[in-house]
Amino acid sequence: MHPTARLQRLLHQARVTVAAPSRNARTAVVIGRLLALGFLICMVTGVFSHFHQDPLPWMVFPTRPVWLYQFTQGLHVVTGVACIPLLLAKLYAVFPQLLQHPPVRSAAHLVERASIAVFVAASLMQLAIGLLNTYQLFPVFGFSFRLVHYALAWVVVGSLLIHIGVKLPVIAAHWTKRRSGSADDDDDEPPLDTPDELQRLTGVRPTAGMTGRLFAWIDRAPAPAGDDPRVATSRRAFFATVGASTAVLVTFTVGQTLGALNPVNLFAPRKRTFGPQALPVNRTASAAGVLDLAVAPDWTLTVAHGQTREVFPLSRLRALPQHDVVLPIACVEGWSQDAAWRGPRVRDLLDAVGAPPEATVRITSLQQRGGFGVTEMTPEFVRDPLTLVALELNGEVLDLDHGYPARIIAPARPGVLQTKWLSSIEVIA
Question: What is the CATH number of the domain that holds 327?
Fold first, then answer.
């Protein structure tokens, strides 16, 4: 037998071996549209978070509701977790299509296969590093998680759009439930046992008898017909398994954001109410390298606008009008928790140095290690009456790990921008 014919026969046999009622175009479309919805949600919420941390000059962010970022980032992480079993289910459903021969049959087929390869590789990488980031393990890769995650998001979405465009006829044909068994078969590989195909591969025009003897194995274990009850049972079991695994992952993770499910938060790295002053901590004072600086008796907060500077020791900050707010700490890893904060308003401190209402400020921390030691706050947050230099948490003086002696707390803002261990606030625009 010609080597090419032998290869095609082996691939075709492998396709028959891995065939299953749940491995068909209808299953791929059903799982695929759920996966596409999940990726769309992750994209929108992820871009929202990215530009919070790296805004363009014209951007203005809403400060109400105060739980907005808490909701969007919690949704981002939970949806990303749900996409893991959905992506594995999608790969399971389309796996036999990887065994086509010839691997590429046309320019359109090349685009399709290339888009699938890019999409699968980027999606697996995106979900993997996203999951590692929730456990704060991304530094093992030695790159900036935020920048790589953002760039990969566009690769995933772009390759997904190309794939959808190429496969649109198949998607349209299998978007709704079909009743006939043959309609579910999306095997578009040229038939192996046609005389024309064999003559092209071997150079010999086979007889019907030769074809039957060579490829009788194709008919040894025919798949059940589409109207066979076993097919429906197998598909229902497959979808039930995918649905149950997704529900379990979400239920045992969302408790880090949704307080009602906190008791069953088994998978997420943070558990609500666990930590100093009943609030979790991401970066400790030790990890930030501020153990001595933050408790120094001569600590002061410097507020500056041009040549005008005011120095606020802790006693002076405490002598200012104190305000009480209840705001969430909402971290990019998906966990969040409401807490009661007390301290002077940021806008009152800026008024002391004559800062204009439209001021953007640079906030500098004492921290010596880690990212976000210097952050910027745009006017909508600066002038918000709920934005405080917090001195107390849940009725007590700030714990050192929560930013003692003073930290920023603002509504609807990522936790990484709620700067701890304050050193200075400077008007920059």
Answer: 3.90.420.10
Cα(361)–Cα(429) distance, integer angstroms: 7
pLDDT in tens, 168-184: 998 999 898 764 444 44
Q: What is the pLDDT of residues 81-122, one digit of tens each?
A: 999 999 999 999 888 777 666 777 888 888 888 889 999 999
List phi, psi (to 5°) of 64: -135, 145
The contacts of residue 241 (CB under 8 Å, 6+ apart) are none
Q: Are residues 246 and 294 in the same domain?
A: no
Closest to 26 in 3D by CA, of 160, 170, 157, 168: 170
Which of 226, 251, 276 lies at the terminal end of a domain, its last residue? 251
**Integer CA distances (angstroms), 391 to 282, 314, 423, in order:** 19, 9, 14
Burial class (CB in 10 A: 0-12, 13-18, 19+), 251: middle
CA–CA separation, 116 and 18 (whole Å): 20
Residue 266 belongs to some domain of the structure? no
Domain limits at 351?
Answer: 285-427
Alpha-carbon dihedral 110, 111, 114, 115, rounded to 10 degrees:
-150
CB 131 within 8 A of CB 80: yes
The answer to whether 69 and 412 are in contact (CB under 8 A) is yes
Residue 374 tokens, joined: 């210097």
Quick one: 377 and 292 in the same domain? yes
Instruction: Look up the pTM and report it.
Output: 0.85
